[in-house]
């Protein structure tokens, strides 16, 4: 069983880290105020505001910021300011044993995907494919906050992950399987193939989403994951949205799913609102979930915090 981090409560301290691309200081400051208005204390990683071209700081410096948050007993949760590019470069500098001994809620998506899955894979820690600092703004849908806090601040179990109204989950291959959920952003997962941090899907339920990739690129990603055995090894598949993904050669994202994934015969649910879209379901990476693709339900089978 994976390690559940201590639950997050109002009044707790959130440690902010910029682990990939830099983020404008004004955006950081306005989002931090939203968190403070919610009742949280904030501490800043040394390089939260840094700018070093494509990334905020060197890989070692960004990794040190993250490790310092795990080591700091006053920090209850670690929140990525954003994803962007370059998160995977910090992985060789992390001490997964220290992280295992100091479990904390950590949340993000996009390029943070490779970190979330590595923390589960190497530290056995449940992580959260959910909000980043950039999402803490007044106009964020209540659905997103409800999902985030239900996953990180309650012991609710089982927890049914429902899409927002009028965004129905769709079942394409019937079945009923239970196992740990892994995955997230396709670009990040494909970029980690062939490295020590390649995702392990053996006996897992694989969740995927993507953004700003034409369907020619999505075809390449899905084919690469197929050839790497990631769909062969998994128990079932959950496909999230492909937001702002241009159609190529009159072939849509849904066409690719039907052509490449449906023939595998594995339980398959599509249209999950999580990741880069307006609505963001909170997916606990490493927790046991059930997908019933006969009834189009996704259920988290255990508390994801302790």
TrEMBL record:
It comes from the Bacteria. Gene3D superfamilies: Class I glutamine amidotransferase-like, LD-carboxypeptidase A C-terminal domain-like. One of its GO terms (biological process) is proteolysis. Residues 14-129 form the LD-carboxypeptidase N-terminal domain. Pfam families: Peptidase_S66 (PF02016), Peptidase_S66C (PF17676). Coiled coil: none annotated. InterPro entries: Carboxypeptidase_A_C_sf (IPR027461), Class_I_gatase-like (IPR029062), LdcA_N (IPR027478), Peptidase_S66_N (IPR040449), Peptidase_S66C (IPR040921), S66_fam (IPR003507). Belongs to the peptidase S66 family. This is LD-carboxypeptidase. It comes from Ornithinibacillus hominis. The lineage of its organism: Bacteria, Bacillati, Bacillota, Bacilli, Bacillales.
């Amino acid at each position: 069983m994976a390690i559940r981090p201590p639950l997050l409560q109002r009044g707790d301290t959130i440690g902010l880290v910029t682990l990939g691309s830099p983020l404008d200081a004004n955006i950081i400051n306005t989002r931090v105020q939203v968190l403070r208005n919610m009742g949280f204390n904030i501490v800043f990683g040394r390089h939260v505001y840094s700018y070093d071209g494509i990334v905020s700081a060197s890989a070692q410096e960004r990794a040190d910021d993250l490790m310092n948050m795990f080591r700091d007993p006053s920090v209850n949760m670690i929140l990525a300011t954003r994803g962007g590019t370059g998160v995977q470069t910090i992985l060789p500098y992390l001490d997964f044993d220290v992280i295992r001994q100091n479990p904390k809620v950590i949340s993000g998506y996009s390029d943070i995907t490779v970190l979330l899955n590595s923390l589960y894979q190497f530290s056995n820690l449940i992580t959260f494919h959910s909000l980043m600092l950039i999402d803490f703004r007044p106009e964020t849908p209540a659905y997103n906050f409800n999902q985030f806090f239900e996953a990180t601040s309650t012991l609710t179990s089982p927890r049914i992950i429902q899409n927002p109204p009028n965004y129905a989950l769709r079942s394409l291959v019937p079945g009923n399987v239970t196992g740990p959920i892994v995955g997230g952003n396709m670009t990040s997962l494909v970029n980690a193939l062939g490295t020590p941090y390649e995702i392990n899907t053996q006996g897992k339920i694989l969740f995927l989403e993507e953004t700003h990739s034409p369907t020619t690129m999505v075809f390449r990603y899905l084919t690469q994951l197929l050839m790497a055995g990631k769909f062969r090894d998994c128990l079932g598949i959950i496909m999230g949205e492909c937001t702002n993904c241009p159609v190529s050669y009159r072939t849509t994202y849904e066409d690719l799913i039907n052509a490449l994934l449906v023939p595998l015969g594995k339980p398959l649910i599509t249209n999950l609102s999580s990741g880069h879209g307006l609505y963001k379901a909170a997916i606990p990476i490493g927790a046991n979930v059930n997908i019933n693709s006969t009834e189009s339900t996704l259920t988290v089978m255990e508390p994801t915090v302790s």
